[in-house]
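Structure request: Translin, Stegodyphus mimosarum.
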Amino acid sequence: MTQSYSEIFSVFQKYMEEEDNLREAIRVIVKEIEQTSREIITLLQGVHKAKGLSQIPTLCQKAREHFLTVKKQYAVLQEKVPIDEYYRYHEHWRFVTQRLVFSAAFIVYLESGKLLEREEAAKFLGISANPTDQFHVELDDYLLGLLLLADELTRFSLNCATYGDYSRPVQISEFVSEMNVGFRLLNLKNDLLRKKFDGLKYNLKKVEEVVYDLSIRGLKPNGESISVSQT
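Returned structure:
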């Protein structure tokens, strides 16, 4: 044996220390991203207030400005993660990425009524949508972010009806219905995704109930249809 046991294990110890230091550096950056994410979510929560509907353009613009900070933070994070070791450390930032995808999806919906595409989500974060690239938006993170959007839209639908915006709940119902159809096409193997998808079906029923309540009260705008979910 050319090396003693102490020499062999000292190499292991050095490797473990370097690994711990790297993970700590990643955690520090992720905490900064999480703080920015909370600030974005706090801004967007303003749409649920009594005067929030009239402030949607302003709130979305301010939230977009915060995403400029997010891009810089993800750029720093990318520099820390060793090449070809994305999945080794992915657990550190996957949850905040899901929340940021949700926030981006909420912004896009509020601005245009459209679904955030994966490529667009990647642009919000300043990273790639291509899974072959070193640092990218993982598909599961994107899908979970969309499912978080369904949760938020359910609440938003009820608040819109409360504040007298009777068209928006119908639009939300149709949007969530289309999301439900889309997710039904997927063979979900991720346990968390399957569980969240069950929540999507519940959210669809809730938003349809809001529209139905408006209908029987004579408050649903003429020409609007009621989406009916399939179970």
